[in-house]
Amino acid sequence: MASGTSNGGKFITLEGGEGTGKSTQALLLAGHLEGAGIDALVTREPGGAPGAEEIRKLLVAGAPGRWDAISEALLHFAARREHLERTVLPAIAGGQWVISDRFADSTMAYQGYGLGVERQAVEALYRIVVGTFAPDLTIILDLAPELGLERSRGGQTGEDRYERMDQAFHRRLREGYLDIARREPERCAVIEADGAIEEVEAKILATVGERLGVEF
Ligand code: TMP
To answer: Is residue 45 lining ligand 1, measured as CB closer than 6 Å?
Structure first.
């Protein structure tokens, strides 16, 4: 299946830089889907399955330069495979709508645009690990990195390895996400994330309604 699923649920991914509000918005969207009679599951990357949560610990803490960029991309894809096989695909097959706080666009943005891993390498890993499956809709929350880093909470949890990367890295991420959206406009929707939580929530609902035909 290229994108979407015929009998099962759907797959929505939320993407963006640090502090863009993805986790909050994933939970809010799940609540609205449930309200519309759709069984929704919120999950995250790296993580979302036991082995993937173990791999997450290797990625989100420690010195910014602790991994070679290709090793880092491989770790994210290893976590992704566990997440897909054990959580995402079974849930979708069972009819649930899965909302993932990050997915493969994060690897293209962070390890690709951010750390310099070649586009072809990330795309090849995608084909091996994910195949032709893809999100039905990807919402990219766009925010100036200075604002996002101010809002971000990673420092409180020790999960701040990426937040501690330099400003130029965070600027490349933002441009990378916008480029991803330009390349795949049918799958991706960019939403400005500098407003109040409720404003962003309303924009996401409108997009999900329009693109996936949900009546909220
Ligand atoms: P989180 O803070 O959104 O939970 O994500 C953990 C960090 O992992 C975040 O800083 C982004 C980073 N990340 C990548 O660098 N590549 C990836 O493929 C994924 C999924 C996350």
So the answer is: yes
